[in-house]
Amino acid sequence: MAATHPSLPHKLTSVKALAESPGLSSIPSLYTFPKHTNDEVFSDTEESIPTLDFSLLTSPDTDERSKAVQELGKACQDWGFFMVTNHGVRESLMKAIIEASREFFELTEEEKRGFEGKHVLDPIRYGTSFNASVDKILCWRDYLKIFQHPQFHSPNKPPVFSKKVRQVAKEILRGVSESLGLEDNYIDKTLNLEHGLQVLAANLYPPCPQPELAMGFPAHSDHGLLTLLIQNQIGGLQVQHHGKWVSIDPIPNSFLANIGDHIEILSNGKYKSVLHRAVVNNRDVRISIAMPHGPALDAVVSPAPKLVEGERNPPAYRAMKYKDYLELQQSSMLNGKSCLESVRKYM
After folding, report:
1. 52 in Cβ contact with 83 (< 8 Å)
2. Is the four-CA dihedral 238, 119, 291, 81 of positive or negative sign?
3. Terminal-to-terminal C-alpha distance of the chain
4. CB 147 within 8 A of CB 198
5. Using CA atoms, how far apart are residues 163 and 161, in angstroms rounded to an integer?
6. Whether the Cβ atoms of residue 153 and residue 147 lie closer than 8 Å to each other
């Protein structure tokens, strides 16, 4: 029997609706990603992603905390990704936010379209792919993005979860600041985290009949300072480490953390944001909740003066307002770290 797929309607449908089309056995060409030579290169290393015990980072014991800060700095430098355990956010809250996201994606297409945004800085924005208006190839992904701070927005949920997560992020960023040899409150004060942007991005990756051809989210780095991610125990996230893709298995009741482009800028390249991607499967629905934490929208981000040393280590990045960077990245096609490259200084 010949493979079939429905033709796409003039108004772009959600991936969920497409995946649930009767008789779907192949994907529209609009969702087919070209294969590159390094796509299939997986790491066979037994080295595992670092783990940060959050309770040690917040320990009153100065020796314990000092060791945790040191290990955090090593994780940022070696991987750019790390698991966060013993973080104090109740597992019931984490499960509830995943379930609330699932319920949203179960709404009718018409109901969900009521949340479609017109601009990348709209506080509540539902959509498909990454930026469907400019994407040449569409991602096998639907999303809901909600601004949580400095103003809290939500269709119907209280802010308890986002407040708890923001506290965890701020403590980790204190540790990052210290690990760079800066004052522990340098990032907080310089980038005005009191009014920092926090986004909750719920991602839905439905089963795909041809997962080897599609991509949930192509290789990219994150804007902002720190992203914390949870998921529904269905794997799919891959991180580039030493030029090879490493699959990250979810650990129950933990956050997966990664540093963003603006830590790379602030550290003058000592800590680098890392390419990562989401692959899809043909069996299970994967839901992930990514929570990027950034500076205040009007904060200008540049390398910390203490980390710049004249000719020996000149500033490697131009100063740029966070809002301008965010608009540039979110309104463009997703292309690795191209947005960060646009603010890099070439000597």
Report:
1. yes
2. positive
3. 59
4. yes
5. 5
6. yes
Helix (H/G/I), strand (E/B), else coil: 253: coil
Degrees (nearest 5) of the Cα angle 80, 81, 83?
150
| SS3 label, residue 162 | helix
CB proximity list for 296: less than 8 A, separation 6 or greater: 150, 191, 192, 193, 194, 195, 196, 197, 322
- Per-residue pLDDT of 47-65, as tens digits, reads 689 999 999 999 999 999 9
CB 184 within 8 A of CB 171: no
Q: Which two tokens stand for residue 217?
A: 């989210």
Query: Is the peptide bond prior to 211 cis by the omega test (within 30 degrees of 0)?
Result: no
User: Per DSSP, which regions of 7-141 are E strands?
Assistant: 51-53, 81-85, 124-128
β-strands 124-128, 81-85: how paired? unpaired
Nearest Cα neighbor of 279 from 322, 333, 196, 215 is: 215
With beta carbons less than 8 A apart as the criterion, state whether 262 and 323 touch. no
Across the strands, what pairs with 144? 126, 202
Q: How confident is the model at residue 114 (pLDDT cuts 50, 70, 90)?
A: confident
The tokens of 300 are what?
């200008």
DSSP code of residue 218: E
Average the pLDDT over each of 20-24, 183-187, 242-246, 325-329 and give the range with the smallest value.
Answer: 325-329
Side chain identity at residue 206, one-letter code: P
Dihedral angle of Cα 184, 148, 278, 84, to the nearest 10 degrees: 40
Task: Tell me the one-letter amino acid at 246.
Answer: V
Closest C-alpha to 16, from 216, 193, 174: 216
Take residue 247 and report the two structure tokens written for it. Answer: 């699959």
